[in-house]
Structure formats: structure tokens, C-alpha cells
Design brief:
Elements: H1 3-6, E1 15-17, H2 20-33, E2 37-42, H3 48-60, E3 63-68, H4 88-97, E4 102-104, H5 108-111, H6 129-133, H7 137-152, E5 156-160, H8 164-176, E6 182-186, H9 206-211, H10 214-227, H11 233-245, E7 250-258, E8 272-279, E9 284-291
Parallel strand pairs: 1-4, 2-3, 2-5, 3-4, 5-6
Antiparallel strand pairs: 7-8, 8-9
The structure holds adenosine monophosphate.
């Protein structure tokens, strides 16, 4: 077997671009040339979840652009920005192997003017779930993604269903601000025991890592109860709480919300999003499933 069979997407001559001006210029040239451009924004410390999104782009676009930018404005003052894992050299190799053509890797100084004063705020979907737990988080997310879309100018952007609220908030932003981009979603990639892959899993102690599968188990329980005909949100949430509370994880939220509006529901009569966030001492983890 030669290298191309083992790593079918390997892109030896991947370009790395570090400034927004250069990236925008390159993106403009790509648009003039007429091919399709697909984009995957990330914060780095890549895992199979990120790579799966890059492969989705590789299969659909002429040019694959990925970004690695640890966006400071989406972290609160007491959150884990400084501790967030980073390993650019490893990420670079993984991007090459996933077939990325251009890796955009700017600095915070290049992305934000010291006196930056314009923000993008989504005001409905952002106020619940992680938005309630992390004030200002989605303002930071919307602002950076708006900036990245203006810089990279892709035809489509691929995002993970793992971050269900983020996906819905950004779809709303793209709709309401008429960004000329399609958002495509990719399924959540999991470890063999069901734990959703996340850059933050690295910070779980071995005991917490073993317990962290409780998020997945809780979602499986919700699916099973729903399949048996249980439609009362309170009952399903109580069963999920029971699964989490036997671990050292602290429930941040367990919610059953309308899949479109993200407002809480008492009865599961239309598609719902079951979303949970659990804090372990090493990391706060989120996961979700849709019941329809
Ligand atoms: P992040 O680097 O955490 O900002 O994530 C970048 C993109 O990867 C987002 O669209 C995430 O939803 C997506 N992502 C993160 N974890 C996973 C996963 N386990 N499976 C699929 N996509 C993921």
C-alpha cells in the first residue's frame, strides 16, 4: 500500500496563511478563479471530530480552507482561555493529512484591533443553555465567525452538531445578516465508549474520563424513554439527572427545548433538542441529541 492509499487526502503542499489581509486576497483570487471553497473554523488541538468536518469539505469543494484561532472574545474572564490546549505543529500535520489546501492561522493581534468596537450579537437563541451559563460567549462566537466569513469568503462552512446551540445561533446570524454562505452540519464523532470527542477531554483525570461517558448514557436514556412513548420533559430530565448525579460531575444544565426556538418544552410533541452541560473538575463538557 502506498502513502496515497493510506492517506488518500494527504496535501503535502498545504499553504499556511497568517494574516487576514493575505487570506482575504487569496480568497478573492480563488473566487475569481471560479471553484467552490469550503471552510472549517476551529480553535485547534484537533481531533477526529474536526478532521471529519474537513473531510466533508474535501469531498464537496475544490478548495478546503481550515482556520485555527483560539478566539479570546468567546471566553469569559474566569474561563479556560489560558489553559486551553494548543499544539500547532501536530495540528498542521493533521490538516495536511485531512486534505486541507489552506490553513489560516492568525494571531489575536491581527484579528482584533486594540480599539475594536463592533460586535455581532444574536439576541434570541443565545440567551439560553450555554448562553445563560456563559454570558457573552455567543457574542464572541458570532463576531469571530462573521469576521472569518468576511476574510475566507467560502461557499459553504461545515460545523459540528456537537455544538448544537452554536450551530443554530450561527445559522440565525447567516440568515439575518445575509451572509452568502451555506452552513452544512457534520455528526458528532465519539470515542468508542460514546464520549463526544472534545479538545477539553484532555483535562479530565483518568477517573473523570471514565465517568464522562455519563453524558452519552444520559442521552441514550432520553432516546430510549422517548422511543417507549414518554413525552413528559420533567420525567425525562429527572431520569437524566439520576444518571449524572451518581458521578463526580456537577450538572450545569439538562434541558429539553424546541429544536428551532431553543425554548423549554413541557411535552415532546415536535422535534426537540436534549442538551446537557456537566462540569468535572478538569473540564466542562457538553453534548446533545435531537428527538423527532
Ligand atoms: P472547536 O475547535 O471546539 O471550536 O470546534 C470546531 C468545530 O468542530 C465546531 O464546528 C465543532 O462543533 C466541531 N466539533 C467539535 N467536536 C466535535 C465532534 N466530536 N464531532 C464533530 N464535530 C465536532
Amino acid at each position: 500500500m502506498d502513502a496515497s492509499e493510506r492517506r488518500p487526502y494527504l496535501k503535502e503542499d498545504m499553504e499556511i496563511i497568517r494574516t487576514p489581509e493575505e487570506m482575504q486576497e487569496r480568497a478573492r483570487a480563488l473566487r475569481r478563479a471560479g471553484g467552490t471553497v469550503g471552510f472549517v473554523p476551529t480553535m485547534g488541538f484537533l481531533h477526529e471530530g474536526h478532521l471529519s468536518l474537513m473531510r466533508i469539505v474535501r469531498e464537496r469543494a475544490d478548495t478546503v480552507i481550515a482556520s485555527i484561532f483560539l478566539n479570546p472574545t468567546q471566553f469569559g474572564p474566569n474561563e479556560d482561555l489560558d489553559a486551553y490546549p494548543r499544539d500547532f505543529e501536530r495540528d498542521e500535520v493533521l490538516c495536511r493529512e485531512a486534505g486541507v489546501d489552506i490553513l489560516f492561522y492568525p494571531t489575536a493581534e491581527n484579528m482584533y484591533a486594540a480599539d475594536a468596537s463592533v460586535w455581532v450579537d444574536e439576541e434570541a437563541l443565545s440567551s439560553v443553555l450555554c448562553g445563560a451559563a456563559r454570558p457573552g460567549h455567543f457574542r464572541g462566537v458570532c463576531t469571530i465567525v462573521a469576521k472569518l466569513l468576511n476574510i475566507v469568503q467560502p461557499d459553504f462552512m461545515v460545523m459540528g452538531e456537537k455544538d448544537a446551540q452554536q450551530l443554530r445561533v450561527l445559522r440565525r446570524m447567516v440568515r439575518d445578516l445575509h451572509f452568502p454562505v451555506e452552513i452544512v452540519s457534520g455528526p458528532t464523532i465519539r470515542e468508542p465508549d460514546g464520549l463526544a470527542m472534545s479538545s477539553r477531554n484532555k483535562y479530565l483525570s483518568p477517573a473523570e474520563r471514565a465517568e464522562a461517558v455519563c453524558l452519552f448514557q444520559a442521552l441514550e436514556k432520553a432516546k430510549a424513554l422517548f422511543a417507549e412513548g414518554e413525552c413528559t420533559a420533567e420525567k425525562i430530565k429527572a431520569a437524566l439527572h439520576e444518571i449524572i448525579t451518581v458521578t463526580s460531575g456537577e450538572v450545569d444544565y439538562i434541558e429539553i427545548v424546541d429544536d428551532e426556538t431553543l425554548q423549554p418544552l413541557e411535552l415532546l410533541q415536535k422535534p426537540v433538542l436534549v442538551a446537557l452541560a456537566v462540569k468535572f473538575s478538569g473540564a466542562r463538557l457538553i453534548d446533545n441529541t435531537v428527538l423527532a
